[in-house]
Specification:
Layout lengths: L4 H12 L4 H7 L5 H8 L5 H7 L5 H23 L2 H27 L4 H6 L9 H8 L4 H10 L5 H11 L4 H19 L5 H26 L24 H7 L5 H7 L6 H14 L3 H21 L5 H26 L3 H6 L6
Length: 353
């Protein structure tokens, strides 16, 4: 694990300077965005805030500073690791590449504004931002796929094959095609038995479970789903994850979301799904389930630096904890700018504990 020594030492130093839960909660008590910005200048975010404040102010200053901090995560990872360690860390970043491509296709299908598409990008990916921006400027999905092909993005191939088979595939079919291709491709790269590969498989297992859960949720609650899925549930299931496709097929026959959660009570996700169900009852948003599944994933990732201090566990945990901290700061800024009560802001902060 010597290949990780240099980077892990530096990331552990970064983690020691992260903001504590009590400190984050105290920011929710601030009355103004300017006061929040002043407070951030007394933290490790000072340099990014001072950079952003030279050309913007208020809430926009905070978002610019946090965007810069997100970009710095990738720069640190790129500087601190090389060789096989870097290649293995990139196996996590590939997930963000797929999310960015899906965001472009979804945005073009729904005729979303260009700025709305690009602001949804994750900067923690391997596809250069300028390439993503070029693809996002496409006038149609067909043009976007052509640009992906020209830029030799591997995800273009499954989309070309889908077009040849379906003619004009739906957005759901394109996204499912990409998910199946992604998990098949990454599955070929994480077959080793060492610690790194076991952690990478565990990460992708949870990601696949989230995809399959979302599919089953949409079949059970088709009237509330954003886009009804054509075909049968087994057309969309990912052959990856902790549950076999046959189990998901049975779960899709659950007469209600309450029974679905009950049928998953023997899995590691029981606690988070129960919370998701309570949240769903209050909001009616199916996304509550994924949000709470991602809380499970976040907390697992955040423990990795302590449990696996010599290998990939440190960068995986660092990225998860840093991104969570940035999301919390963005939420606090939004809450202050929107005039939310401090108690409401605090209740909706992410916790890695």
């Amino acid at each position: 694990m010597g290949q990780y020594d240099y980077g892990n030492t530096r990331l552990r130093a970064r983690m020691s300077n992260m903001l504590g839960a009590d400190e984050l909660a105290s920011y929710a008590e601030l009355a103004t965005i300017d006061g929040f910005i002043t407070m951030l200048t007394k933290t490790p975010y000072r340099e990014s805030v001072e950079y952003a404040i030279t050309f913007t102010h208020g809430y926009a200053c905070v978002t610019q500073a946090l965007q810069r901090e997100t970009e710095l995560i990738y720069r640190d990872i790129d500087r601190f690791y090389s060789g096989e360690a870097s290649e293995r860390i990139n196996l996590i970043l590939l997930r963000n590449d797929l999310k960015n491509i899906k965001a472009i296709l979804r945005g073009l299908l729904h005729s979303n504004p260009f700025d709305e598409i690009t602001t949804s990008f994750s900067t923690l990916g391997t596809i250069p931002e300028e390439v993503l921006v070029q693809i996002a400027k496409s006038a149609s999905v067909d043009e976007a796929i052509s640009k992906m092909t020209v830029n030799q993005l591997p995800a273009a191939q499954p989309l070309l094959e889908l077009k040849a088979e379906k003619g004009i595939p739906s957005g759901a079919e394109m996204e499912n095609c990409l998910e199946k291709w992604y998990f098949h491709s990454v599955g070929q790269l994480i077959k080793g038995s060492d610690e790194d590969m076991r952690l990478l498989r565990e990460y992708h297992t949870v990601e696949a479970d989230i995809v399959n859960l979302n599919t089953v949720l949409r079949f059970i609650s088709a009237p509330q789903a954003e886009e009804e899925l054509p075909g049968e549930v087994d057309d969309y299931l990912i052959p990856f994850g902790s549950l076999p496709a046959s189990r998901w097929q049975l779960l899709a026959r659950s007469p209600s979301l309450h029974e679905l959660v009950q049928n998953l009570s023997s899995t590691r996700y029981k606690h988070n799904l129960l919370i998701g169900l309570d949240c769903y009852k209050n909001t009616g948003n199916l996304s509550e389930f994924e949000a709470n599944m991602r809380t499970h994933l976040l907390r697992w990732l955040s423990r990795l630096p302590r449990l696996f201090p010599l290998g990939i566990g440190v960068p995986l945990g660092y990225m998860a904890r840093k991104l969570s901290e940035i999301r919390n700061l963005r939420w606090i800024a939004k809450g202050i700018a929107s005039g939310f009560e401090p108690v409401f802001i605090k209740e909706n902060l992410e916790s890695v504990a």
